[in-house]
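quick one, 203 residues, struct below
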Amino acid sequence: MYPNNHCLSRILWGTFISMGQGRRKKPPLQKRAKSPMPNQPTPSSSWLRTLFGKAWFLVTVMAVLIALWQAWPRLSVFLGDSLDPKNPYSTLFLVSNEGYVPIADLNSECKMTFIDNRRNTIHETVRDSKFAKYLAHSDKSTLPCFKSLTLGQNASLVEVGDLTVTVTYSVYPLSFEYLRREKNFHFSAVRGPDGIFHWTLLN
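---
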């Protein structure tokens, strides 16, 4: 016997339903959420940051230069006692290192020029090699200009005196000859009413 039309319709409908259930739709792909962009610096804040960096660099450079200037050797000369009030060149001159970097191997040259009471100009030079071996901060040493005591009786004839002191030295521990430095001091002396000479530093 053949199935009737009603049964055939039911069979076909059941087959269609089962095929439809087998083909389920895939779930739609979810789009990835975009990560938020980091905050970009505004032009004004970037300009201020650059300006602050340059200002800090300049301040640092100035601080280093000032520290070097304070530490670098600086020579000063002070007047001491006089061995003979009638001889201006018998005054004891003291040289001092005012910097924090020590100096070494100090040489000196004292050039003396004076005019006597007859208006004659007389010259004398006193040199001393390594009169001081080493000078730290605030250390002092006596310049050998007082060795001009050989003026003898001519000292009483001095009316106007002139003295130029040249000190050469090495910055410790650099002892190379081409790195040696030089400092000049120029003094002038005039006899006062009391007969004693008074020295003044000209430079």
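DSSP finds two helices and eight strands in the chain.
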